[in-house]
Specification:
Length: 235
């Protein structure tokens, strides 16, 4: 549950926010949406795959953090041990909301029920004059930047789909000799990529998308890491 409300320098002048590496709020979310700007660093730890939104048919890149639906192997405790962290994990207790239904402007909201929010310890949000502190400015800018990254990610993923490069792939791993099948995932098809006509391939290269594709493909080796983590958890 959350209690998100638009930030206001009068109503929230006494609020402070503490730092936290507790991401256990994602413990039941084995697929974590990511943006293309973080493909390279995340690929060293997590498999990056694509899933399809059943409501609108659009593809979404995600970091696979668990082999079983509803179980994030990295977020079962309040301690984060991975050397890399998805950008979206750092949002809380802040979020963006549209100022109005027809507006392109966004307002920064805060979750008043988040344990990081209090009136005693942490970084202040407003100074004595009611102006935003540098901390709040930085956090607001990070939210806006991530929103821009998300728009770019949507456009690039749609481009891959238009080129017919995303194919459904069933993944099967062995857990104590028992096969576990993961459905609903999409990968870049290396064969189709190699068979593209030269102008199409050059278009992808000129847009700077090849490093994203290779990061995605290389990240699939991390499925072995997830398998080992699942085996350790099941012991």
């Amino acid at each position: 549950m959350s209690n998100k409300t638009p930030l206001h320098n009068e109503a929230h002048k006494a609020l402070k926010v503490t730092a936290s590496n507790d991401f256990s709020r994602f413990k039941a979310q084995h697929l974590i949406p990511v943006v293309v700007q973080e493909f390279a660093p995340l690929a060293a730890e997590f498999p990056i795959v694509f899933v399809k939104n059943s409501d609108n048919g659009q593809f979404i890149p995600v970091a696979l953090m668990g082999l079983k639906e509803g179980e994030n192997l990295y977020c079962q405790t309040n301690e984060w041990h991975s050397p890399v962290t998805p950008l979206g994990f750092r949002n809380a207790p802040f979020s963006l909301a549209k100022a109005s239904e027809d507006s392109n402007e966004a307002t920064v909201c805060i979750d008043l029920d988040d344990p990081q929010v209090n009136s005693e310890d942490g970084q202040a949000l407003f100074d004595d004059k009611g102006e935003q502190t540098e901390f709040l400015k930085n956090r607001s800018n990070a939210l806006l930047e991530l929103a821009q990254f998300s728009q770019q990610t949507t456009a690039i993923t749609q481009y891959f789909a238009q080129k017919d490069l995303l194919v459904s792939q069933q993944l099967t791993v062995k857990l104590n000799e028992q096969p576990l099948t993961i459905n609903g995932l999409y990968l870049i098809d290396e064969k189709k990529l190699a068979e593209l006509a030269t102008p199409e391939f050059e278009d992808i290269r000129s847009k700077g998308l090849l490093p994203l594709i290779y990061a995605h493909l290389n990240s699939l080796h991390q499925i072995n890491r997830l398998t080992m983590k699942q085996l350790q958890k099941d012991k």
